[in-house]
Amino acid sequence: MKEKAIYLDQSYSFEERAKDLVSRMTTEEKVSQMLHASPSIDRLGIPAYNWWNEALHGVARAGTATMFPQAIGLAATFDEELLYEVADVVSTEGRAKYHENSKKNDRGIYKGLTFWSPNVNIFRDPRWGRGHETYGEDPYLTSRLGVAFIKGLQGNDPKYLKSAACAKHFAVHSGPEAIRHEFDAIASKKDMYETYLPAFKACVQEADVEAVMGAYNRTNGEPCCGSKTLLADILRDNWGFKGHVVSDCWAISDFHLKHHVTTTAPESVALAVRNGCDLNCGNLYGNLLIALEEGLITEEEIETSVIRLMVTRMKLGMFDSDEQVPYASIPYDVVDCKEHNELALETAKKSMVLLKNDGILPLNKDGIKSIAVIGPNADSRQALIGNYEGRASEYITVIDGIREVVGDDVRLRYSEGCHLFEDRIQGLGEPGDRLAEAVICAENSDVVVLCLGLDSSIEGEEMHKSNAYGSGDKYDLNLPGQQQELMEKVCATGKPVILVLLTGSALSVNWADENVSAILNAWYPGAQGGRAIASVLFGETSPSGKLPITFYRTTEELPEFTDYSMENRTYRYMKNEALYPFGFGLSYTQFDYSSLNVSTTKIKAGEGFTISVNITNTGNMVGEEVAQVYIKDLEASCVVPTWQLSGMKRIKLAPGESTEVTFDILPEQLAVVNEDGQNIIEPGDFEVYVGGSQPDKRSIELMGKAPLKALVTVE
């Protein structure tokens, strides 16, 4: 044993302490610390630690915790400050759970402080089953929300991390799920640097994210968890990433079993570690001992990874007394507390997107004697939660929420109507065994709340039970099973129908758009979701969410799912008119934009500018508005997006109230990305739009007004 234990001396930096600690380990001990289930090393005072934990929208898979809306619902708030607040609550609960579990010597999976969240992949294709884990289809929105979420998870102490966030899955990863283990995502340099990489770069350089997780697939021929281009050249050399890289779970074995870029397990682990993958989710890194014997890797390369991992654990305070670590005193009382659940409810309300309203909403309960609440998602807990979820102490389904609002004054009639995706509800029943009941309920009620959509059992990850339905991905954008038939039969009764969609992705609800009275998109709204939905339906809350994704009219207009080119994808490059465009969402009140002012209309390359606009609530209800800035390059020398989101601010206004909102546009937001992936600021004219939506024809038609426009010239 060395004389002076520098690793226990707080006067040294974490890096110096980690180097000293690792220098005291045997080779076997070093390798053992590179597995997600790291055993204790008692002689050095290192407790066992399991790195695998999840916190996508609440502390996941570890018992009771506050459950927020799924990530795609969080994205629909377009609210950076709210995302920070949500993540701050998540890390607060995570800390409390970690310390209490550790006192009971429970150091198992999902009990640690290394959260493998957020997922900042770009939701480029609505068929992808894991899209609801992301912040949508736009690189700017994803960057802003990812940075905010990471800052909330990691805290603001100058020395210690509250928890360690992880940006995943690096990079160019968004389906198909069924072939993710052997798939090679081919992306041009332009698409890489314009679409697939910006959010990761922001997470590294702005949020100082502690960890990055590699993806299962290959990108341009290299497996992501062992890619020299991604991990060494871009992440560490170009962006200056200092944290650790973790593999996706059991992804390293894909190198030789599925991708065939190596032939043996020792070759695979050597490739991964040599290119900078420090931690193995799985057990394959045990082969590093063989790789070392075979000369495929050096002890120094192994040590580099272990030092990075020990630095993370030290930043989390795991080698210092609780008195030294500010987050160690968070009491267990905070877990699932009243204040946290109130924030979950408020967040769910802000995530709701009103897609259509012929005037039926908000409902006045005093004028209604009976409501039919119909559909497979009307009383579904599964439709509230999304995936990577924790366990809430209370779940409020849609019918629960409506019942709370109307009490005994209004008669509720309930029918499941149909199964979510199968042709019957009872095993011995005949096809459509609840359709007649649904029609009877509708006929005998004043108004119908029809709850359709998806849940995480049929859109999700390849390895889950969603295998029964498209390996987690969607075959098309239609309502599954008998849901369309149910809707048509219910509408045929002539009763007004309000469609509530619970979904993590876009659906082609063209028929509904033409035939129902109102459509509310509620996402997977979290444990308090039914309360939030009822709050919007009955006008306690004015809907204020905006779509973080495009709702397309058909699957046919989309490129092949396996095509990673951005051509004709997302609002930035799509050619057809959307059913409901990115950035769209209606309100119960009206917001007027006026007095658009640009600080200067002529700027030099490398300069930014400021935009201000006046917004007035001209309706008769308190409401929140998401003001959006889009920039269109009119004279680019290469292919550029139609326009792109470049600013957003959420404001709350009482009826008749006005406020001035300002946006700072950075020089790099005027850059184009050329075919070589280079950011270039070119001279020319740029149109700047500010309003409550995109400036496309469909948004203007749906909103009844166009955004304001100004011209800025780069000289």
Describe this structure in words.
With 715 residues, the protein is an alpha/beta fold. The protein folds into 3 domains: 47-295, TIM Barrel (Alpha-Beta Barrel), CATH 3.20.20.300; 339-549, 3-Layer(aba) Sandwich (Rossmann fold), CATH 3.40.50; 591-714, Immunoglobulins (Immunoglobulin-like, Sandwich), CATH 2.60.40. Helix 4 (80-103) packs parallel to helix 5. The radius of gyration is 26 Å and the shape is globular. The mean pLDDT is 97.
Topology:
Elements: H1 14-23, H2 27-32, E1 37-38, E2 49-50, H3 71-75, H4 80-103, H5 139-154, E3 166-170, E4 184-185, H6 189-196, H7 198-205, E5 211-214, E6 218-219, E7 222-223, H8 228-238, E8 244-246, H9 254-257, H10 265-274, H11 288-293, H12 299-315, H13 338-351, E9 353-357, E10 370-374, H14 382-385, H15 398-406, E11 411-415, H16 435-443, E12 447-453, H17 483-491, E13 497-502, H18 510-515, E14 518-521, H19 529-537, H20 570-573, E15 591-598, E16 602-603, E17 609-617, E18 623-633, E19 644-653, E20 658-665, E21 672-673, E22 679-680, E23 684-691, H21 697-703, E24 708-714
Parallel strand pairs: 3-5, 4-6, 5-8, 10-11, 10-12, 12-13, 13-14, 16-24
Antiparallel strand pairs: 1-2, 6-7, 9-14, 15-17, 17-20, 18-19, 18-23, 21-22, 23-24
Helix pairs in contact: 1-12, 4-5, 5-7, 13-19, 15-19
Strand order of the largest sheet: 9-14-13-12-10-11
Strand content: 15-25%
Q: How many DSSP helices?
A: 21
Low-pLDDT parts are none
The helicity comes to 25-40%
Radius of gyration: 26 Å
Do you know the CATH architecture of the largest domain?
Alpha-Beta Barrel
Tell me how many strands there are: 24
CATH topology of the largest domain: TIM Barrel
Mean pLDDT: 97
Main β-sheet: number of strands, strand sense, barrel status? 6 strands, mixed
Spatial shape: globular
CATH class of the largest domain: Alpha Beta
Distance between the termini: 66 Å
| Content-based structural category | alpha/beta
What's the number of domains? 3
- Fourth-level CATH superfamily of the largest domain: Glycoside hydrolase, family 3, N-terminal domain
